[in-house]
Records
---
Amino acid sequence: MTTGIIIGSLIRYDMLKRDYRLYPSYPHGVVIHLALGFIAAVIGAVAIPALLEKEFTAVTFLALAATQFREVRGMERDMLEGLDRTNLVPRGPDYIEGIARVFEARNYLVMLAALLISGATFIGNIYYGLLMGVATFIISKTLMKGKNIGDIALVRAGRVHFEGAKLFVDNIQFMNLALQQSRETYLKRGLGIIVEPLNDNGRATLANNGQRKAIAHDAAALLGVYKDVDSAEFTPLVRRSLDTGRVGLVIVPMEKDISVLIEAVKRVPVLESALSTPLKTTLGKKAAD
């Protein structure tokens, strides 16, 4: 049990990403999720010994405790939606739902890892448990790794320019800007990105509005954004070319660095709710021909 609890908790700590997305980077968020991971490890670690000792009442209690992790997704969703209302560039509901699912799933992974480690130690010895711990660590890293925009599309710089009052990145139109001062700001400080899908799967994924909001949010989070609550014209925008399926991003960042922006967009996660694979179907393949 001790082996399963310790290694399971360490696996949860390793899966706890602390980065520019700000949650759960702050200390209280880290403590909350480490505590939940410890509870999940305890539940998984005692399951097999309880069964082997025919403590069925304890197993029933553990099953009841495990169902409480279903509430984790709702808790995270509600909290992140509240925080999102204060962001200059919101994540959007699709991005938030994806984060909430990940936090729920990671607790189940920790529970399964602790169960396997505890079982291997109980049946064999501590060395079997440590070997199982290494295996579950590798498996958990594999399961939690998802696709990024760079895996489904080519990301390159685009030219920010105006045709009259219309703002363009290459040939993708974004909006009309009547104020000359705003147009000058875009020409002086603005950056443009073109995201070209590699195939029809990428094109369908980039068509999702939630995925495009995620791109704008991550770009603003990493490079900063030259706007305040009363300057909506400088909100980062992502627009789609209806003719080609390409997507364009225009942003007025605090740090004007096109290479960093390209890399930031490449690393935006592909949202589960946005992922689309029409090429896996017969009709999708025929339509792409």
Note: The chain has twelve helices and seven strands.
---
Amino acid sequence: MQYLEFEKPLADIEGKAEELRAMAKTSPGMDVSKEAEALDRKAETALRDLYKGLTPWQKCQVARHPDRPHCQDYIEALFTEFTQLAGDRAFADDHAVMGGLGRFNDQPVMIIGHEKGNDTKSRIKRNFGMARPEGYRKAIRLMDMADRFRLPVITLIDTAGAYPGKGAEERGQAEAIARSTEKCLTIGVPLISVVIGEGGSGGAVAFASANRVAMLEHSVYSVISPEGCASILWKDSEKMREAAEALRLTAQDLQKLGIIDRIVTEPLGGAQRAPKEAIAAVGKAIEAMLAELGKMKPEALIKDRRQKFIEMGSKGLAA
């Protein structure tokens, strides 16, 4: 288990409990159960206190935790008969974007999501979840297919943003993001998005212009990263804490502003501490959102989606 910077007090307590148990294993006659249990209770209290009042910057750190379940984990746990579809039929297959056909509660659906990878090799292959133009064009192709066969689309958002490299810009990164966002707004099937980690900039909006948007409790969703915002506004990336506060990027703030529709509660200590519980909670949220949209006609779905985004500005000003 990797500990975040603000979790150091917790790491010390849990570390002591582990040391006691390790000593007991090497000395069978030593009984440390009471001391270890007392430390466990102390650790749980410390964990509860830490996560009760996380700052926006601390939520950013939790959202980026490498042990949080990623897109592939959700697909393997929640969807059956998943068949991955590759390529944009124009340039290449972007491994930062996973997509394909599957069944959710035996209902055929299209799944699209950002995949960051879980070790050095897979993170490099997945480009740390930062999609290139071909990733967005693949998503457009899959959304077109879903629209043609009347399949709901479920997107899982977890990206720091679109890849800003020279090659991506040369191949039309901005245009691809805009086309993907446009496609989200025009398909006549239910579109549901869940921010499972980071929702960064246009790279996230290109998949999240949906009828219903949910966020995990400790995920973040913003127009720019706190570090990028601090570099622009204060010319100092170290002011990321102030930037995180100003961006109002937490699920709680965004629900108040009307940007998202639902917050999915995470296990105590974040999704990284109990991945199976977090994945199950997301599954229940998807099920509920699909039920809300299941009986709507294509024209009503498109109107609902467009109206949702038109109203965002007025709700934000009122807040």
Note: Residues 33-52 form the longest helix (20 residues).
---
Amino acid sequence: MYRIGQEEIDAVKTVIETKDFFKVNGSLQSCYKLEEALKNRFGVNHASFVTSGFGALVSALIGFGIGPGDEVIVPAYTYIATAMAVVNVGAIPVIAEIDETLGLDPDDFEKKISKYTKAVIPVHMQGMPCNMDRICEIAAKHGIKVLEDACQANGASFGGKLLGSIGDAGALSFNFFKIISCGEGGALLTKDSSIYEKACIYQDSSAIAYFGDQMNGFSQLSFCGNEYRGNEILAAIMCCQLEKLDSIVADLRRNKAKLLSLLGDVCVAPSNDSDGDCGIQIPFRFDTYEKAKAFSEKTGQMLLYNCGKHVYYDWAPIMEKRGAAHELMNPYNMPANKDLNHNYSPDMCPKSLDLLKRTVTYGISPDWTDEEIEATAEKIKSILNS
């Protein structure tokens, strides 16, 4: 989260004064206003405000009809929530390589497709777009659904299209660590009514059938689900935050561009769309792990290999196949999944490990002054030349 202030305080105060916090209400209807704003911004037919990016991912997979007997391809570099969402619906995550852009490697994605593959989740890590043209082309060729994990990429785009709006469905996150935030929150985006209906029933634990007329026009019957429904207080905050997104991203991009111009000839990871990148960070790429590690230690910035949570070998519940608290609910033990690809090992994605060992991301602030950018550039050049 970068910017929050009096607007959000006033919005929360107004909601509290109504004493009407539930999503379905006759007062402010902040959840619905937020969902309408998201639909308009992303150019999708449907948006659902939920409690987390994870909730959005799981709901989308339910909307796809994913379950036991299905494989879903996920990248080696992402937060564990991406893979856990797949396990949560009873399916198996198949882990694929990333490429030089730190996004899902389209070539390895296609290699990992089997007769069991039903979906792929490209993840736009740290605001960096995946190659959505190739990923969507491959997915269409094989009849595979595309779920964009844009949880770290609010406001980013690829080819002029906002991330989260390109695939069959998209997931956004609004937790504390994201560009815009309400502490915890997320959103499901889709143009497909069938996906949306199933996702809504699931994320509202079927309570959708008992409050208001939310299922009017639905063709899907209600079923038992989970509880990821958003509320009015968080939605009120997000309505304010969404209005700030463009200015935040514009300032991030400007400050990143200025810092890069001052640095001159430095080696950074390539981008699938440098104009669409959020500008959250600069991914410095070194020729050895030792050089990257030294740069990380001197700057205090993140060496991706050692980040502790975004690389597949750090996902202990996945790597050790602890997919549920009860063994009969564990997808890795389900007969329907016995022939699927869950042969995990710490060294199974060597290309990804090599790239992550040699990449350090340097965080950008949208609020840096020109003097701070110049001082940062001098600091980085001094370290690189030492």
Note: The longest strand covers residues 46-50.
---
Amino acid sequence: MTEFEYWWLLALPLFFTLGWLAARVDIKQLLSESTALPAAYFKGLNFLISDQHDKAIEAFVEAVEANAESLELHFALGSLFRRRGEVDRAINLHLSLLERRELAEPQKLAIRAELAQDYLKAGLFDRAEELFKSLDDSRYEQPALRALLEIYVREREWHKAVETATELERLSGIPFRKEIAQYHCEQAVQALLGNDRETARKHLDEALDANKNCVRANVMLGEMEALAGSHEAAIAIWKRIEFQQPDYLGLIAAKLLASYRTLNRVNEGLELLKTYLQTYKLYSLLNVLYEATIAQQDAETAARLARDELVKKPSLQTLDLLLQARLLQDEAPQDAHVIQQTVRYAIGNRSAYVCSQCGFRAKHYHWQCPACNAWESLPSEPTESVA
């Protein structure tokens, strides 16, 4: 054991010397590479850091002219063109690179990948799709699949979107269950537009297989049963949403009550909605329940409902409901109408569904954000923004 330790003591200076020499070589290589870069490259970086993109483009153009053989500089300039929306310049830049005969195959592949991004940015989806499919190197496999998925979603080619998302999920290990379920729902919508109920039901079942918590699938299945006159079945399907994501019960509250009304069991429906309201405290449930109470019973009962909820959770929207009910009563306060108008003015357009991904504000619920295309990114209930 002692001899072994002495051997290490003798070897340590040797390892130290080798490490010092390696570091010297690395430093020399780094210095030589940095001096090989044109000064305009560093000027461009400085302009980028300070968000002076026009000057950055000028600097990178100068850098490319000074070192025309550097693909990396061309790629940096092309990326900058894309960011600035000058996609035509990016496309011309990469097409001119592809005309070089001396390029090796990996270099051509890298240029095609950049060109595919240009076409995608320009909205030339057919050309972009063709190029992304041609990137047969494993380095580009996942980025290409992500780009193809974006193309298929934007082009509403839902069958291809399902296949691509499934393959991307397999390769990356990142789940796409929510998105795949939504793609199946979109296929169901297309089938219903073609009056093909059987195919629509098949796609909705596939959506639930992909994601058991896909509320949209059960919303649509219930709607199909109600339209066919099978209101018992519709109610049973919509009740499943409580065990999926109860925050979405407000989306089907009016539909649920309409089916109960068709079955001459409206009071049963009202009691169910009251139970949901007490359990989950959703304003959309209160709104449906309030309107049904006025129509089915009387304004006093509706006012009592609104007042009870107002005590539990103060809200200008609930106060508006209370004042509305009071105005329908004979003994309404003299200034109730003026107070209600003031409350409604204060509410204004503050209530909206706000996308958690991009902040887009929508008056009505969307399963897919119209701005950033994210799925289920809008909350199930509209929120009141602070004035």
Note: Strands lie at 351-354, 361-362, 383-384.
